[in-house]
Design brief:
This protein is an alpha+beta fold. It folds into two domains: 2-104, Homeodomain-like (Arc Repressor Mutant, subunit A, Orthogonal Bundle); 130-290, Alpha-Beta Barrel (Multidrug-efflux Transporter 1 Regulator Bmrr, Chain A), CATH 3.20.80. It is 39% helix and 23% strand. A hairpin with a 6-residue loop joins strand 3 and strand 4. The longest helix has 19 residues, at 50-68. The radius of gyration is 22 Å and the shape is globular. The mean pLDDT is 88.
Length: 292
């Protein structure tokens, strides 16, 4: 499959240049997508930001060189992109749990992070239902959480954040500020402010339908955009595993199979509808551009 070959080419380029400057733009060109889409897709599929993956691979090779040669620590540091032996030592110890000097002992336990590979599993029993929709600009407001995609951290922290906001009445106050019943559900969950290091913000949000909102809330301006909208099968707050599975499949199965890529728009949205009495549901909205 062409997508698979493109991703392999990008990873091979990274692997061949671990001791040199690595251009994210060039890696993305090899993957035949935008730099923004390449970094987002890499993080969602692997659970590790591209920058963190490169750091781990470089420190893996640095450890091997220290154990098998007489190379100076400063020379290894410079080779793998560190400006000083102190900065290199901090990063090395954080990853390996040992100092570069102690790594020279062959009996010192060190961590090895192997080169990643991509493969696609063909599943004929699990379809993805989606539509492409144009939507005018709109505004949301709500409460923020700073989290990260590193090691799937966001999948743990976001449900915990929502749970806390339910327990302390913050969501009830939010939906009332939006003109809804106090026991109603909020309108959207939004991820944004995505950074190459994997950090991002998450917002519990409602539609902004008045000129002003209480000052304790943040307002997001969502631009006019083309969206890929995915059904999730989500019916209650206890179905979070379904949402997580759809998110992963969007990046690992849907994007590789279609002529769309993530648009340069810093918002991914879960839209919730219905209510607890009559039943609720959720859709995932991803900003996209057609690459044909």
């Amino acid at each position: 499959m062409e997508w698979l070959n493109n991703m392999k080419n990008a990873l091979n380029y990274i692997e061949e240049n671990l001791a040199d400057d690595i251009s994210y733009d060039h890696a993305a060109r090899l993957a035949r997508c935008s730099t923004y889409h390449f970094q987002r897709m890499f993080s969602y599929i692997t659970g590790v930001p591209l920058s963190e993956y490169i750091r781990r691979r470089r420190l893996t090779f640095a450890a091997l060189e220290l154990q098998t040669s007489d190379i100076k620590v400063i020379d290894v540091a410079l080779k793998y992109g560190y400006e000083s032996s102190e900065a290199f030592s901090r990063a090395f110890k954080k990853l390996h749990g040992e100092t570069p000097v102690s790594a020279r002992n062959t009996d010192t336990p060190l961590k090895v992070f192997p080169q990643m590979t991509f493969h696609i599993t063909i599943k004929g029993d699990s379809e993805m239902v989606y539509r492409i929709e144009q939507k005018e600009a709109f505004e949301l407001f709500g409460m923020e959480l700073k989290t990260s995609v590193v090691d799937g951290k966001c999948f743990k922290e976001i449900p915990e954040f929502v749970g806390r906001c339910v327990a302390d009445g913050a969501i009830s106050s939010l939906v009332q500020a939006a003109g809804k019943k106090p026991d109603g559900i909020f309108d959207a969950g939004v991820t944004y402010a995505h950074n190459p290091n994997g950090s991002m913000n998450y917002m519990i949000a409602c539609y902004k339908q008045t000129e002003t909102v209480p000052p304790e809330y943040t307002v997001l301006n969502i631009p006019k955009q083309t969206w890929a909208v995915f059904e999730t099968g989500w019916k209650t707050e206890h179905d979070d595993a379904k949402l997580h599975d759809v998110w992963r499949r969007i990046y690992s199965e849907w994007f590789p199979a279609v002529n769309y890529e993530h648009a340069d728009c810093d918002f991914d949205i879960e839209i919730y509808y219905g209510d607890r009495e009559t039943g609720c549901g959720a859709e995932i909205w991803i900003p996209v551009i057609n690459t044909t």
